[in-house]
Design brief:
This protein is mostly helical. It is built from 10 helices and 2 strands. Strand 1 and strand 2 form a beta hairpin. Helix 6 runs antiparallel to helix 9.
Length: 241
Amino acid sequence: MVSPKGPMGEESSLVHEGDRRGMQPIEEEPPEDQPLRERVYRRLSEMIIQGEIKPGEPLREARLAEVLGTSRVPVREALQRLEEDGWVDRRRRYGARLKVPSRADIDEVFDLRRLLEVEAVRLAVRRASLEDVDRLRAIAREGRAATRRGDQNQVIEANARFHSAIAELSRNRLLAQTLAGLDRRVRWLYGFVRLARMVEHDEILAALEDRDARRAAAAVRDHVEQTRRLFQENWTAPRDR
């Protein structure tokens, strides 16, 4: 069978047979607490973050509906939401395409991350137990082990879990939800960074253990800025398809 071709004769990642085998179709009768459009949105978001959809790749409703095993209506709704979230660009004569990230995106993401995570750790200092800090230490150890192995996927996973745990310890649901959305951006950007190590979290952990909010805030600011520099220094610009 001849696979459909993308721009410039390239085969689109959305129609690889391997992608079809690895992806479970979305059921037409979703649970009542999760509308189909939400499930499609989440699946497309994960495809973007995991690199299954490439920057600049056309996002055609019919093709996506076929790959996901659903109708075009929830796909259209999901694409509209992704456009509102800043993941999708629409150009005249080209239609909807996945955004191509740039160094400017790194600064936007880390500017916001610094502001929100400083507040999250200040709240966590007051609300986290010693058992919570021990859990964070265990995650940090996993990140260091992944760094020694040169396993970037596990480095990213451990780093995301560490920051997610701090957000949860803030006990502020809206703040944690906002940071979770921001973390999806960070995970996506990791796909364009040649990096296999995690910036250490030791100073953040020590400040949490000592209940020192000022020190914890300073440690988070320093951590975010170190990570920003690593992203900028190791950035590999994706090609606009």
